[in-house]
Design brief:
By secondary structure, the protein is α+β, with helices and mostly antiparallel strands. It has a single domain, classed as Immunoglobulin-like, CATH 2.60.40. It is built from four helices and seven strands, in the order H-E-E-E-E-E-H-H-H-E-E. A four-stranded mixed beta sheet has the order 4-1-6-7, with no helix packed on it. Strand 2 and strand 3 form a beta hairpin.
């Protein structure tokens, strides 16, 4: 292998590793009385991530630690929607708070993901001032309107 090929391979290797150098965690805490749906998107990454958080719980399913292939990506935007009984029945088959296992199954299930996508499209996108930093958020119901507050 000649010197130029080694240099190119080394450069490609370093560039691919640099995306995995910084890990990120975005945590959401649900301070409302209903389950909430979070749709989360990373910059330069086409996959959309979802989570359902029951009242009084927090979640950090949007966690990509050091070494993860998604660790170096910054947040693009996220959507937060409150789930009513009809939404719960449509996604989980019943109108009660879902368990962690049911949420995990729904997040991985294509038809459930399509239903979640339709729900989240009715809320405005939320962008962050510092999208490349990890954040902790509280989601509160402020007079019938969901508000996302940074806890950092």
């Amino acid at each position: 292998m000649n010197f130029l090929n080694k240099k190119v391979l080394l450069t490609i290797g370093l560039l691919s590793f640099s995306n995995s150098v910084v890990g990120h965690v975005w945590t959401f805490t649900n301070l409302t009385l209903k389950p909430i749906l979070i749709e989360f998107r990373l910059l330069t990454h086409s996959h959309v991530y979802y989570d359902v958080i029951n009242p009084g719980e927090n979640s950090s399913r949007f966690e990509w630690p050091l070494g993860s292939m998604k660790a170096g990506f910054c947040a693009d935007k996220f959507f937060v929607s409150e789930l009513n009984d009809n939404h719960l029945r449509d996604i989980f088959g019943r109108a009660i708070f879902p368990t962690v296992a049911e949420i995990k199954h729904a997040i991985d299930d294509a038809p459930a993901r399509a239903k979640m996508a339709r729900i989240s499209k009715h809320t405005p996108a939320i962008t962050m001032e510092s999208p490349c930093d990890s954040h902790n958020f509280n989601v509160v119901n402020d007079g019938g309107k969901l508000t996302v507050v940074t806890k950092d």
